[in-house]
Amino acid sequence: MSPARNIDLSPFNTLALPGRAARYERITAAGQLAEIPQTETRRFILGGGSNLVLSGDFAGLVLHMAILGKRLVKEDAEAWYIEAGAGENWHDFVQWTLAQGWPGLENLSLIPGTVGAAPIQNIGAYGLEVCECFHSLQAWNFQRGEFVSFDREACRFGYRDSLFKQQGWHLSGRLAIVSAVFRLPKQWVANLRYADLAQELASCEIATPTARDIAAAIVAIRQRKLPDPAVTPNAGSFFHNPLVEPQVADALAAAHPGLPRYPQPDGRVKLAAGWLIEQAGWKGKALGPVGMYEKQALVLVNHGGASGADVRRTMAAVQAAVREKFAVELSPEPIFL
Ligand SMILES: Cc1cc2nc3c(=O)[nH]c(=O)nc-3n(C[C@H](O)[C@H](O)[C@H](O)COP(=O)(O)OP(=O)(O)OC[C@H]3O[C@@H](n4cnc5c(N)ncnc54)[C@H](O)[C@@H]3O)c2cc1C
After folding, report:
1. Does domain 4-65 have CATH number 3.30.43.10?
2. pTM greater than the 0.90 cutoff
3. Cβ < 6 Å from ligand 1: which residues?
4. How far from 300 is each of 217, 259, 320, 322, CA to CA, in Å?
5. pLDDT on residue 172
């Protein structure tokens, strides 16, 4: 292994933030990971950089996951089992499964990033979380110097959460996911739980949608609502939707009519972070080069030339405004490096 030195990371993060990696290696085969010397203790595993805030230069080794490959590994009476390399583009992978006639992942169309990062924050959208279709993953454990497997239970998935985040491994670079297997049930049922999706299909006069109809509808909605990172750098939803106790939600709704509330199976209530930010006056507002997107207040955007410090400043100002108006804490979704 001979890593490149002093590499510019700005093309590798969708917020287009500046920062250089002291050492950088593109990983195209799992075997490369075993060759990394034990002395390289400061590591960061990089996928598509679409859930990342770069604070500046990184003094360690960046391992850019580019392992490709996708295949049907098993099929039984109930399901298809599909494996993909960690470096596969997530959206392309989803479209490929649909083209093969294996539905199930369509609600997660057009989420940027890689297959390997999908389990890290248990990506979710339009009424589906990836854990619902997840079977297992393979990762290189740097401490043990061996490949390890995790099944669904071992990943301890939660809302935008997993074992990898709970243990802080997503920041310590302890594990590099090399591939993941998804289980797609043959008894497919259209997932139309999300109101926007049902409306989009109705407006196209599609009464009994196929999985590909659903994917197309989601792509259309997302293209309308979200800024394209290639044009307006961003990291998608910047804050988690806060979960509060029901009494807190009731009190907030009494004080702020129209507050969207989503009761959760565990008794808590999910609030819409985008609504709170908009009501706090931050939709379309900026502080220096960083602001909240004018069409979707939950998305933080880099209007040009921003640094990680600029992102932190705007983030803190938005959190303070929401705290002051609603006494609710917003926590950021992306990873800060
Ligand atoms: C426009 C836009 C829309 C988005 N919409 C959604 C959405 O609807 N739902 C949603 O959940 N997310 C969404 N996101 C966030 C993002 O797409 C996901 O979090 C995605 O899974 C990140 O993938 P990535 O490859 O870019 O990961 P990166 O940003 O490169 O990395 C994220 C974290 O995962 C770790 N990681 C990455 N690859 C590996 C690996 N192979 N092994 C071990 N660790 C790894 C990194 O170390 C880091 O901690 C959106 C982002 C954007 C820009």
Report:
1. yes
2. yes
3. 14, 44-52, 65, 86, 111-114, 116-118, 120-121, 123-125, 170, 175-177, 226, 229, 234-236, 335
4. 24, 21, 15, 15
5. 86
